[in-house]
Amino acid sequence: MQPRNMSMSGVVDLAAVKAAGEAKTKAEQARAEAARNGGTAAVPPSDLVIDVDEAGFERDVLQRSAEAPVVIDFWAEWCEPCKQLSPVLERLAREYNGRFVLAKIDVEANQNLMQQFGIQGIPAVFAVVAGQALPLFQGAAPEDQIRQTLDQLIQVGEERFGLTGIAVDADAAAPEPDEERAAPPGPYDTLLESAVQALDAGDFAGAVQAYRNVLSDDPANTEAKLGLAQAELLNRVGALDPQRVRQDAADKPGDVDAQLAVADLDLAGGHVEDAFARLVETVRRTAGDDRQKARLRLLELFEVIGTDDPRVAASRAALARVLF
Fold first, then answer.
1. What pLDDT, on the 0 to 100 scale, is given for residue 3?
2. By three-state DSSP, how is residue 12 classified?
3. What pLDDT, on a 0 to 100 scale, did the predictor assign at position 130?
4. Torsion over CA of 33, 35, 38 and 43, rounded to 10 degrees?
5. What does the pLDDT read at residue 244?
6. How does DSSP assign 146-178, residue by residue?
7. Would you give the distance in Å from CA 267 to the centre of its chain?
8. Catalytic residue IDs
9. H or E element at residue 125
10. Which parts of 189-316 are beta strand (E)?
11. Across the beta sheet with 49-51, what order do the strands follow?
12. Low-confidence residues of the chain, pLDDT below 70?
């Protein structure tokens, strides 16, 4: 996916997130109070990259944005491009040393924030500056372009809002290894770890086999079932030409395989509802083996997203209506 919207064309109000102005005021008051008491304490480097949820959004993003720009990385565990982009953003956050803070938001666990920002696909990167938001880019991007965008963002923060960044305590000690108590390894940890390593290396077929090896002995292993569904999806999508696949589906609406391929692309790109709706409609229009093929693929994609996701529940209900 090519990056889009990589621009500093202007800071816009984030109308969907309530109390942005109030959060800015509170943060400015807190900063003034800290200055009266001798200045803001430096933060450890670990505070430059934070996980954020809906409950902590005002504190962790809006209020922090009165001191330094907060870059938001919208991601999901099943999103392969996210796994390429997120480590780059994390490394740059530490390298920039307090000139911006990176907030990571898992879209699967924070649907309301995803909707409020109007996220259509992931990875998607936004920034919040002094309680206001602007889109940066969508999709994985080359590091040099990311650096240029960050430099422009920091300049906007300094020139328009007087943001000077946050102080970082470089001497903050990391936990000693013996302070961290590792859980005892499970019987399949080695196989599961090898599957994850294969995914990270782009060896999707190897990851599929590793997960199947676990499931052959432990069919109920939840981690392996989820991993297998994700690995199989990535293995299928990796061999596709997106433009040709979408054209084939448009030219051949009755071709079940063409519809399945587009659904895979949509899900891998974060367009979950589109993927589910396409397959439900394919089930409705087909019969016999074609219907069964579409139904089974839809169930596989449910596994990728997670059966407790509300979009899965809604699509299960839609599937039941067309089947019965």
1. 42
2. strand
3. 85
4. 100
5. 93
6. HHHHHHHHHHHHHHHH------B-TTPPPPPGG
7. 13
8. 79, 82
9. strand 124-129
10. none
11. 49-51, 101-106, 70-75, 124-129, 132-138
12. 1-41, 170-187
Residue 123, preceding peptide bond in cis (omega within 30° of 0): yes
Selection from 320, 275, 272, 229 nearest residue 108 by Cα: 272
Helix %, strand %, coil % for the chain, to 5?
A: 60, 10, 30
| Residue in the structure block whose two tokens are 């974060």 | 270
pLDDT of residue 125: 94
The neighbouring-strand residues paired with 72 are 103, 126
Give the total residue count for the chain: 324
> What pairing do the DSSP bridges indicate for beta strands 101-106 and 49-51?
parallel
The confidence score (pLDDT) of residue 261 equals 94
User: At 4, phi and psi to the nearest 5?
Assistant: -125, 160
Q: Is residue 45 within 8 Å of 90, Cβ to Cβ? A: no
Please state, in angstroms and rounded to a whole number, the distance separating the CA atoms of residues 214 and 210: 7
Asked whether 132 and 20 are in contact (CB, 8 A), the reply is yes
Q: And the tokens for 119? A: 């996220």
Cα–Cα–Cα angle for 269, 274, 278, rounded to 5 degrees = 120
Token pair 């089947």 in the structure block, residue: 323
What pLDDT is recorded for position 89? Answer: 95
Looking at residue 74, its pLDDT comes to 94
- DSSP H stretches of helix in the chain: 20-36, 57, 80-96, 111-116, 143-161, 189-200, 204-217, 222-238, 242-251, 256-268, 272-285, 288-305, 310-323
Q: Residue 254: which residues within 8 A CB-CB, separation 6 or more?
A: 285
d(CA 50, CA 71): 10
